[in-house]
């Protein structure tokens, strides 16, 4: 008999981005390996902050996709920079979760995604039970990450978030962390807590690689969320374009700033391509020389999932984010590293990248490392054994 598992998350396809991809892959992987999986998630709205077409004017939407039952609940959708509106959005989803918990039978095994902290707290608080196996999947360390990003200050609200964070960890039977730094942080609070390193490894067929045709300039691509944390607008303004092209795919809070900058500087080789689906993106990425992975500030506990996805695509990477991600790039020979926050060093590193070093053999070696070391199926087998 299949084991019942409920996954509670704030992000799920058709929403785009690492968070939704990560949870869908976990749900799909478990469903294909003797688990009966259901998902609780808001009506899709990320990153636009507006309910997607086909889901509007609905309080609840239930569907079955790849044998996974998906319950989409009402949310006051917003991507506003106004903290009050964003809090209202999280509270609205939390209220929908409480309503769902009251009227539906909840499986014994529940996986809760964190952040958002408040949504995770709602789930951990209302579902805590000695007979229930609560698994907390921690992808970023909040409130620490918010402090490092400048989104939070050390005040009363911050102390409350720290208390919520501790409550969530304390009441979890198992904590999944996407980085060693996350697990170290958890164990520093609760030394006996059961933890598991769960990287965001992708699970798609590695493409057949071909040599990229040189155009004379180094073709650098960024693909993903155009948010404050990524700092793509700052990147556009700080790069030396004498030997490079910059191609950008994605959407997010900084999109209008980036589009305006590109429009106002037609002399610069910056190309904004907008948002595309993940399936559309993969073949597009293969025509570029290197992929850049930036963070505006080093964020403790963060290891961008793009590292593992690009590696499976055989993409050489330029990492500009600091922290544990640097170790992954260096230890697996996946590309180049520039000092986090130092745009002078970034331009220096770029100027030293030789076109002749971007060989097909190098791409193949990167892909081989990903297939051998960043293996989703092997990781899932280990996870299955402990849940």
UniProtKB/TrEMBL annotation:
Membrane-spanning segments: 84-103
Pfam annotation, one family: Glyco_trans_1_4
Ribonucleoprotein as UniProt keyword: no
InterPro entries for this protein: Glycosyltransferase_grp1
Keywords assigned: Membrane, Transmembrane, Transmembrane helix
PANTHER family on file: SULFOQUINOVOSYL TRANSFERASE SQD2
Name by which UniProt lists this protein: Glycosyltransferase family 4 protein
